[in-house]
């Protein structure tokens, strides 16, 4: 499905860049996500510079102890030698999927959010790249696959659902064929779609249980 709106024509990232520069108010995502200062991490939200930009995701390896098979943004914990959150996100993307940082242009950052499961304060670095190189798992023991979905796919109401966790948690999710994106990753993508002015109305009352293969702790 092609982009049904003019928001992706011309300079599709201008509104998003402006919104990020304005230091958007952090979302609560159901509870207080104020950074705790215990541990720090960064993830990379990487869009191609196309008329209908595509966003890169990774699927965690099936052999991992934690969150095996789940879909996430490239990223990880801050290392002592990292300069800042951007350095962390780009280093991790290189290590995970072979992204050449010289091809990346920064748009800005989302405010850091606290993740209770890991106790990380996670900063989302938003950027673009040409999308003209192949990205693939660098370490199959860590990354299972690389996925890419366009904005028109992510905003298609047919692909939007409310995910329901067995413990009662609900939140925005993306049902992209065999791929199910939920949790913090889905919240971050949903947030950026709103900031960029790309979001479309979708049925939040369409609630589905998180598929078992994407639910493992």
Please provide a brief summary of the model.
By secondary structure, this protein is of the alpha+beta class.
Give short descriptive properties of this protein:
217 residues; alpha+beta; Nucleoside Triphosphate Pyrophosphohydrolase; four-stranded mixed β-sheet; 4 helices; 11 strands; 18% helix
Description:
Residues 37-175 form the Nudix hydrolase domain. This is CoA pyrophosphatase. Its EC number is 3.6.1.55. The protein has a domain at 8-151: Alpha-Beta Complex (Nucleoside Triphosphate Pyrophosphohydrolase). Helices cover 18% and strands 32% of the residues. The protein has helices at 14-21, 85-97, 151-154, 183-196, and strands at residues 39-48, 54-60, 71-72, 75-77, 105-115, 120-129, 143-150, 160-164, 170-176, 179-181, 207-209. The strands form 3 sheets. The protein has a 4-stranded mixed beta sheet, sandwiched between helices.
Mean pLDDT: 89
- Distance N to C terminus: 33 Å
User: What name does the CATH topology of the domain at 8-151 carry?
Assistant: Nucleoside Triphosphate Pyrophosphohydrolase
H and E string: HEEEEHEEEHEEEHE
Which architecture of the domain at 8-151 does the CATH hierarchy give at level 2? Answer: Alpha-Beta Complex
- Strand order within the widest sheet? 4-1-6-5
Computed over alpha carbons, the radius of gyration is 16 Å
Give a quick account of the main beta sheet: strands, pairing sense, barrel closure.
Answer: 4 strands, mixed
Q: Helix amount, in percent?
A: 10-25%
Number of strands: 11
CATH homologous superfamily designation of the domain at 8-151: Nucleoside Triphosphate Pyrophosphohydrolase
């Amino acid at each position: 499905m092609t982009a049904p709106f003019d928001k992706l024509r011309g300079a599709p990232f201008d509104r998003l860049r402006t919104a990020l520069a304005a230091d958007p108010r952090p979302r609560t995502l159901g509870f207080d996500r104020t950074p705790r200062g215990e541990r720090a991490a960064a993830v990379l939200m990487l869009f191609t510079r196309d008329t209908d930009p595509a966003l890169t995701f990774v699927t965690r390896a099936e052999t991992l102890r934690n969150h095996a098979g789940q879909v996430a943004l490239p990223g990880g914990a801050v290392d002592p030698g990292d300069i800042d959150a951007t350095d962390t996100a780009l280093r991790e993307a290189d290590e995970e999927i072979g992204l050449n940082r010289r091809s990346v242009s920064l748009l800005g950052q989302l405010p850091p959010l606290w993740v209770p499961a890991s106790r990380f304060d996670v900063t989302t670095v938003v950027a673009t790249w040409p999308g003209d190189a192949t990205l693939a798992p660098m370490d199959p023991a860590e990354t299972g696959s690389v996925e890419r979905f366009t904005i028109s796919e992510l905003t298609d109401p047919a692909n939007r659902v409310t995910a329901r966790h067995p413990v009662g948690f609900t939140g925005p999710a993306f049902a992209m064929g065999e791929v199910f994106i939920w949790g913090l990753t889905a919240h971050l993508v949903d947030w950026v779609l709103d900031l960029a002015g790309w979001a479309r109305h979708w049925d939040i009352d369409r609630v589905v249980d998180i598929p078992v293969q994407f639910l493992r702790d």
